[in-house]
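User: I'm curious whether this sequence folds into something compact or stays loose and floppy. Could you predict its structure so I can see for myself?
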Amino acid sequence: MYLMYYPDKEGKREYTLRKRTESGKKTLSAHPSRRFSPDDKYSRHRITIKKRFKLYLADLRNLLIV
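Assistant: Here's the prediction. I'll summarize afterward.
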């Protein structure tokens, strides 16, 4: 189940788990990024490339600060 919302009469968000409201309108995804997929197919490849080329986020931050 995904958290969904629909705007009420005052324009505030009403949260629900349903796909449609009582009036039959579609609800919208409440996730901050609608294109986010919990099934990240390429994370293994990104980690491998970072290890191979030694591109670690902590190292990059230190380079930018200096």
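Summary: The CA atoms of residues 19 and 27 lie 6 Å apart. DSSP finds two helices and three strands in the chain.
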